[in-house]
């Protein structure tokens, strides 16, 4: 056994990698260009990181739960637009003149002079470019103004044989040979899903009439050339000159819809012997019939898509306001519940360590609430299964042009059986991204409790810091068995401090069935003992321009 262990140790020592340390004496040789580029790139990234996070310590706190950062440019209207043909022509002339001037400077270069000394125009231009865009170890130097470019895709010329192969052959590279639909057609399809059914019906009717009038004009021209190719109640086309357009339109829409009343039709061999002269009429009618079938299918597909879109939307109603409720006070102005701050009693220490314990009152953190109501709550089988709720808040970044979006942690974000009412809750504690950094530090210094001097609507509102609150609800509808979703975007002006949602569930006398009163979906009630903030005309002037930021209004209900 000892021999085996000894051989194993020798094998392990022989296979273990050895660390060789080479001491290189310092040299005055310049560093490689690769190291200089890496150092410069690191410094540029450091400056960019400082510009995004604001250069303070709050950037690390904002990175927690950060989803994305977007930058919005603030500029006058119509500042950036596509160049007109005249401006494009002037730009091309300036570019050609600049190129010709560059060619003349190249011709004046003397090859006998030393280009490294910068005596030739070419060398001077190269040195100037190096001074402007070259690597620099000075971190305080301002980088050059970046240039803006528009990237256009280069469309290669394809022969007719290649196009024919694309039609009848299948390519494995689907990214290169993919279908590119017409942008106008795609815009119309998206527009139909954004508008209501009545507007879409009117658009269908307008397109239907336009196509029929276009084909009617071509049929009128073809009928004027060969009147015998179109029969109108047994007579040739144009028998009544004043009704030629009306007859052509009648033939057009009956062909487009494949109705065919039999009063107007294209002639056959028994009606007109020279059938080779009717090729234009036959081609137009055949093409119009095919276009009519495609148009009917497209309209049906759009209608089915709109119906499916309705089924994919969750039948829920979000409250118009965000309510922030503070801790309740009793009639004497004291806290309803006291928190014992003395030593804890555990099985290991059943008695208190010291008798000098105190019971002092601490304030729990305020809670932000919003309400989601199931519109099918009073209907049997209208539940939403496996409902999930997510929330994201938007906030201003280091500058006015940068906005950050941070994930918001909800107290209850899952509901296996959402049938009636669901209130989303978020505690404004030390980890809440909805509070200012100063407010979070104050809560953290107060052992995670709300400061006693801040238990008023004005202080709570001053501690808030957000611009948008996006709530997304997803689940499976029990009605259609399809995945449904719904969302609501709240603004800062939708916040009501010191309010609670009114109860909306009720049951009739003599019945145990619980129902929802949808008339109270957006009703709120004040907290007791004057804890609610003033609103509207009663709003305190100390809140500044808060009234101008309001996106909701309160209507008092009087008995």
UniProtKB/TrEMBL annotation:
Transmembrane stretches, start-end: 197-218, 280-304
GO MF annotations, alphabetized: inward rectifier potassium channel activity
Keyword Transmembrane helix: yes
Chain spans, region Disordered: 20-62, 95-148
GO cellular component, one term: plasma membrane
The keyword Ion transport appears for this protein: yes
Subcellular location(s) of the protein: Membrane
Membrane topology: Multi-pass membrane protein
Matching Gene3D superfamilies: 1.10.287.70, G protein-activated inward rectifier potassium channel 1 (2.60.40.1400)
Superkingdom of origin organism: Eukaryota
Alphabetically ordered keywords of this record: Ion channel, Ion transport, Membrane, Potassium, Potassium transport, Transmembrane, Transmembrane helix, Transport, Voltage-gated channel
Family annotation (InterPro entries): Ig_E-set (IPR014756), K_chnl_inward-rec_Kir (IPR016449), K_chnl_inward-rec_Kir_cyto (IPR013518)
Regions of compositional bias (Acidic residues) in chain numbering: 103-118, 132-142
Family membership: Belongs to the inward rectifier-type potassium channel (TC 1.A.2.1) family.
Protein's name in the database: Potassium channel domain-containing protein
Organism, scientific name: Trieres chinensis
